[in-house]
């Protein structure tokens, strides 16, 4: 039970960090279908959501690495990884996703 609540806590924290940086970012990206990412060998946890932006339509996965930074993975509608950004910190989440979106 503790792992489940830790997974949800990490996903919730990522959402709070995005909202703190830009309150309208999730709405601008057309974000929906949020889900928590479980702990793995590479990642401590994370957040996944579907987007319908201007340039990127598909999914965004924000994974918290064990070294306390994020890997952001962009997946298209065909479930193919189109871009990966490693080494992002919480203050970089919105600018990196905006950059991919072409803003």
Automatic annotation (TrEMBL):
Domain of life: Bacteria
Name the UniProt record assigns to this protein: Uncharacterized protein
Lineage: Bacteria, Pseudomonadati, Bacteroidota, Flavobacteriia, Flavobacteriales
